[in-house]
């Protein structure tokens, strides 16, 4: 984003392949293999270590490193689902080029593909499935009292077999009730004028809706005067988005308080068409069923009338005697 | 930890000052009084000239703050990011100072083993969320800045959206320079609602001199005026002093 790059940051982004980074405190060594990504708060490299391939994040900003480490530690406490990469080491590196201590941390290296790359390769039917997976992961995170914050396709990685969505870059992860730490305008409800930047589960769910819109609509668009109306029109313009219209609008309006509610509605929307088709396939059978029901009703009535008549005849007979 | 207030001046400009005192000196003056100065340089399509760039960086450095040069389009995200980053930086300075008092004069966050830093960061995070913040926004409206003013306004709304999501209170005020009569003119007095700006912003006229130095000086004295007024009402008010990092 900034035009002018900090010289130190620039240098950190261009560490030569083969550079060996040794921690000052724990003395573990990591040899740089290639760049994995450049963020606002640092750079991530693939590196070789004693334990195999790892991801290393370096930054000249020790505060952002320290708070990301805090979040990663918390992530590991969220049981059951693999949310983000697991944290392996935290240390400082004495950088001989600048004579400065550079803080860094080591994460598990997740080999996978970025969300959009994966969808392009494997087909659009994966979008909604990955979103369902994401909603389950978010639900776990929300239940622990956190909000992911900077949800965007670039922070989603699809890895493994079966393909599973993983969250990357925890820089935006915020305690519920606090101000969102990091965000990206297009996926931020504040930018669209549709809510605050206070961290609550609905903040993440808005971003999920925007990711779906982006994934199906494919072009990223600019905000206009009446943002809500603009989003509704875009949803209306695409056949698949139209199918999920009610879910998307509810998420955009912040009506979902929990990720699982949105997941439930999304599942229902996926199968809505199937249900309609099934009903269309078996209309005759249903009518037959109704006819038999009607007939049995008639039989019932006749039986009652006959019984009553019989009782009446018995009564009359008794009177005569 | 004591409750306090962070004081910042956010300068939004697109180039060189050409009138009055050296703005870098005025920034150093502000820092001495515990006021942090952040500077955002706004570009058109071309690059900012070397002198402008040096001034933007110089003011922020002397003012103990952060500088960033961006295209007008990216202003919104930059303004809120710079303000928050500067807050964290100042708060970290404060926490570092406390650490030194507890652990000895040569200890800072970097000297702690990485495992311990997390706890310190939690304190900084907590403070950043709850501390009171006063931001005086100083906008250069001279010459070529005129076309960028709608974008500046949008960025300021965005800033209030971000800061008002915090638990702690905010106070904003907006000044522009050059003013209609003097070097600088107040367009919005201290208020927690930066959105009120919409009613005053269109009145601006731009052109002429760029008195960045005098504008900074007046902004600092405006802060002090507020402080002395406050101290009449409540004397236990405390401010976080900017400490060397």
UniProtKB/TrEMBL annotation, chain B:
It comes from the Bacteria. Gene3D superfamilies: von Willebrand factor, type A domain. Pfam families: VWA, VWA_2. Residues 1-91 form the VWFA domain. InterPro entries: VWF_A, vWFA_dom_sf. This is Ca-activated chloride channel family protein. It comes from Anoxybacteroides tepidamans. The lineage of its organism: Bacteria, Bacillati, Bacillota, Bacilli, Bacillales.
């Amino acid at each position: 984003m900034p035009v002018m790059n900090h010289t130190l940051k620039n240098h950190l982004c261009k560490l030569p392949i083969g550079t060996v980074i040794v921690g000052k405190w724990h003395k573990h060594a990591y040899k740089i293999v290639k760049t994995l990504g450049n963020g606002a708060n640092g750079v991530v490299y693939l590196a070789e270590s004693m334990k195999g391939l790892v991801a290393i994040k370096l930054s000249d900003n020790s505060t952002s490193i320290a708070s990301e480490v805090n979040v990663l530690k918390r992530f590991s406490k969220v049981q059951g689902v693999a949310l983000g990469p697991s944290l392996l080491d935290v240390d400082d590196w004495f950088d001989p080029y600048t004579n400065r201590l550079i803080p860094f941390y080591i994460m598990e290296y997740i080999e996978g593909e970025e969300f959009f790359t994966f969808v392009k390769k494997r087909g659009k039917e994966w979008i909604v499935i990955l979103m369902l997976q994401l909603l389950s992961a978010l639900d776990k995170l929300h239940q622990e009292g956190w909000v992911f914050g900077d949800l965007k396709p670039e922070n989603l990685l699809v890895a493994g077999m079966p393909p599973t969505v993983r969250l990357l870059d925890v820089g935006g992860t915020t305690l519920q009730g606090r101000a969102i730490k990091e965000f990206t305008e297009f996926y931020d409800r504040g930018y669209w004028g549709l809510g605050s930047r206070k961290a609550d589960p609905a903040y993440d769910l808005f971003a999920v809706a925007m990711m779906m819109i982006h994934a199906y609509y494919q072009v990223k668009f600019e905000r206009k005067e009446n943002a809500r109306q603009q989003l509704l029109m875009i949803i209306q313009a695409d056949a698949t988005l139209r199918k999920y219209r009610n879910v998307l609008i509810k998420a955009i309006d912040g009506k979902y308080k929990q990720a699982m509610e949105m997941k439930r509605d999304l599942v229902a929307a996926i199968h809505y068409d199937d249900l309609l088709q099934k009903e269309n396939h078996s209309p005759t059978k249903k009518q037959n069923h109704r006819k038999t029901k009607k007939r049995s009703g008639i039989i019932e009535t006749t039986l009652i009338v006959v019984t009553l008549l019989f009782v009446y005849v018995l009564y009359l007979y008794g009177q005569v005697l | 930890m004591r409750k306090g207030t962070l004081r910042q001046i956010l300068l939004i400009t697109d180039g060189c000052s050409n009138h009055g005192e050296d703005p870098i000196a005025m920034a150093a003056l502000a820092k001495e009084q515990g006021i942090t100065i952040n500077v955002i340089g706004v570009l058109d399509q071309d690059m900012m000239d070397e002198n402008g760039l040096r001034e933007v960086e110089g003011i922020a450095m002397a003012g103990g703050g952060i500088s960033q040069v961006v295209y007008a389009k990216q202003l919104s995200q930059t303004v809120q990011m710079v303000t928050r980053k500067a807050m964290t930086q100042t708060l970290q300075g404060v926490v570092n100072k406390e650490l030194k008092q507890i652990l000895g004069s040569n200890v800072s966050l970097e000297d702690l083993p990485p495992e311990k830093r997390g706890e310190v960061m939690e304190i900084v995070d907590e403070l950043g969320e709850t501390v009171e913040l006063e931001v005086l926004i100083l906008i250069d409206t001279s010459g070529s800045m005129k076309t960028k003013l709608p974008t500046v306004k949008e960025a300021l709304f965005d800033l209030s959206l971000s800061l008002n999501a915090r638990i702690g209170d905010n106070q904003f005020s907006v000044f522009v320079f050059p003013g209609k009569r003097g070097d600088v003119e107040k367009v919005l007095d201290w208020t927690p609602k930066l959105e009120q700006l919409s009613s005053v912003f269109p009145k601006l006229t731009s052109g002429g001199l760029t008195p960045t130095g005098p504008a900074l000086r007046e902004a600092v004295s405006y802060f002090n005026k507020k402080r002395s007024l406050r101290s009449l009402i409540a004397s236990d008010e405390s401010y976080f002093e900017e400490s060397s990092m």
